[in-house]
């Protein structure tokens, strides 16, 4: 077998940045949003020795205000802003006396919308009650905790570490960077979140990210070297859908893994022999629908129980019993069972109505066949690549609700020489981890591994370009765990090896995966 080898390092990156909370010159979230006219703003943006209690901002088009009492913030929060709109002019006023020698920022958080498309933007007006403005800027990259992709339009906020009052915030741009401007050097609490209700507070249910100790010290203009990793909170487990697929299948989908399911329909328990997992979050329940019309489907698992309603019209109960190959493109690898599935529970098979022939010469192929639930599998001699013509005549399979429709198809049974092998050196990892192998965007393999000095072989890979992720499985539960804001738990670290490895048929490729924090 041919083989070659090379080394891959886990690539880290620093994202390029530009300001995302726009100055009063206009927001950049949407180019068609109303824009301030800078030369007409009174007092001008970035004014010093400010002593008034009003700011007048003319815009380039008519606009409407969206929730100004909650979407307008002054930072530090020493006043309550009252906003009024007249034609194309916004006036911001307050009654409180501001503190001396302090830099203030007024944020319009999607406050100003145009009249037609409701386009909006985030804008910032800055002034100082002293003779100078705080001038420190700081860039914070924000990425998705699982994909490492930059996250746009998320809020990065700084809070006073003692009082938890908002000090500054910015919104991430297309590169996933938030630029915090007009800062005073100091130590702050920092958090990133998707501000769904524009209240500048991280709420339960919002996508969120934070640092391990929650604090950041900003001494001078610069950037955060390690991105904040945002994650979606774990939702309350539930049945997300339950739909009937004719002639005999309820498809139950959940938002979490289904473990040890118990299903009842209209209070009647369904025997587990009638269940089939299509995915870890999708359960097929086979049942004769003849007596069903409407009612409740209940699912109980190790971690949750939920009930949903169904309504089933007689006209929706009719359907054919179809036969489908288990593998995509009718192509079977050497280790894959030569199997087919039907959309009902199999009761019996009439082998006299099934015919297998070799495509090259139409010679008959002898076989044995077995079935379990809705899957039937052939046992035939295998070795070299071959194409098999499979013919199921009508009624070849008998199910609970009827007999199968005819099926004819050409199946490819591939030899090992059609595939490549990846030989991975993962000896740099000293704790339990999960290896994920991707072809393009599709994850084609996933396995939990203990630390090993031996190479890990990933076989039967179709030729193409592959990349890798390694999940540092800290709690050793065999899956990636997201974070939790309440307990200040960070999501499990993922090492992304974005450089691709080319796999060729009948070749073994040696690759060494070394995380960046272990590289010399």
How would you describe this protein?
By secondary structure, this protein is mostly beta strands. It has four domains: 7-231, Immunoglobulin-like (Sandwich); 239-316, Sandwich (Immunoglobulin-like); 323-417, Immunoglobulin-like (Sandwich); 420-518, Immunoglobulin-like (Sandwich), CATH 2.60.40. The chain is 1% helix and 47% strand. It is built from one helix and 43 strands. The strands form twelve sheets. A four-stranded mixed sheet has the order 1-43-37-40, with no helix packed on it. The longest helix is centred in the N-terminal third of the chain and has 4 residues, at 68-71. It is elongated, with a radius of gyration of 31 Å.
Structure described in brief:
The protein is mainly β.
Structural class of the secondary structure composition? Answer: mainly beta
CATH topology of the largest domain: Immunoglobulin-like
Biggest beta-sheet profile: 4 strands, mixed
Radius of gyration: 31 Å
How many E-type strands?
43
Q: Which CATH-level-2 architecture of the largest domain?
A: Sandwich
Total individual domains = 4
Given as residue ranges, the uncertain stretches (5+ residues, pLDDT < 50) are: 9-21, 25-30
- Strand percentage: over 45%
Give the spatial strand order of the biggest sheet: 1-43-37-40
């Amino acid at each position: 077998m041919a083989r070659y080898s090379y080394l891959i390092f886990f690539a880290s990156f620093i994202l390029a940045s530009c300001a995302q909370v726009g100055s009063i010159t206009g927001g950049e979230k949407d180019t068609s949003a109303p824009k301030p006219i800078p030369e007409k703003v009174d007092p001008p943006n970035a004014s010093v020795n400010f002593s008034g209690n009003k700011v007048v901002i003319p815009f380039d088009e008519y606009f409407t205000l969206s929730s100004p009492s909650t979407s307008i913030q002054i930072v530090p929060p020493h006043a309550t802003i009252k906003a009024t709109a007249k034609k194309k002019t916004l006036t911001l006023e307050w009654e409180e006396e501001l503190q001396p020698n302090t830099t203030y920022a007024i944020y319009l958080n999607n406050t100003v919308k145009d009249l037609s498309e409701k386009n909006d933007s985030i804008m910032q007006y800055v002034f100082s009650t002293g003779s100078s403005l705080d001038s420190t800027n700081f860039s914070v990259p924000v990425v998705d905790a699982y994909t490492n992709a930059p996250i746009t339009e998320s809020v990065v906020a700084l809070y006073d570490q003692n009082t938890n009052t908002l000090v500054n915030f910015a919104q991430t741009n297309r590169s996933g960077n938030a630029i915090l401007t007009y800062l005073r050097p100091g130590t702050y609490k920092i958090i990133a979140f998707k501000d769904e209700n524009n209240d500048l507070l991280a709420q339960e249910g919002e996508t969120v990210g934070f640092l391990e100790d929650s604090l950041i010290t900003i001494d001078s203009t610069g950037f955060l070297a390690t991105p904040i990793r945002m994650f979606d909170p774990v939702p309350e487990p539930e049945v997300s859908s339950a739909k009937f697929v004719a002639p005999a299948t309820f498809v139950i989908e959940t938002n979490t893994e289904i473990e040890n399911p118990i299903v009842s329909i209209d209070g009647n328990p369904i025997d587990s022999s009638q269940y089939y997992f299509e995915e870890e979050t999708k359960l097929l329940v086979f049942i004769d629908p003849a007596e069903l019309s409407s009612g409740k489907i209940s699912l109980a698992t190790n971690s949750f129980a939920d009930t949903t309603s169904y309504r089933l019209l007689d006209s929706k109960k009719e359907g054919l019993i179809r036969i489908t190959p288990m593998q995509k493109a009718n192509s079977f690898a050497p280790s894959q069972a030569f199997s087919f599935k039907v959309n009902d529970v199999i009761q019996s098979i009439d082998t006299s109505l099934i015919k297998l022939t070799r495509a090259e010469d139409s010679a008959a192929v002898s076989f044995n066949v077995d079935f379990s639930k809705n899957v039937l599998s052939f046992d035939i001699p295998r070795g070299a690549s071959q194409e098999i013509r499979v013919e199921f005549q009508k009624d070849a399979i008998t199910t609970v609700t009827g007999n199968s429709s005819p099926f004819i198809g050409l199946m490819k049974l591939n030899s090992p020489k059609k595939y490549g092998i990846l030989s991975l050196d993962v000896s740099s990892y000293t704790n339990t981890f999960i290896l994920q192998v991707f072809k393009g965007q599709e994850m084609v393999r996933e396995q939990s591994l203990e630390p090993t000095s031996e190479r890990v072989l990933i076989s039967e890979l179709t030729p193409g370009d592959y990349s890798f992720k390694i999940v540092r499985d800290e709690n050793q539960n065999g899956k990636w765990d997201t974070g939790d804001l309440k307990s200040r738990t960070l999501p499990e670290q993922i090492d992304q090896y974005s450089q691709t490895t080319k796999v060729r048929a009948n070749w073994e490729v040696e690759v060494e995966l070394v995380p960046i924090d272990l590289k010399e």
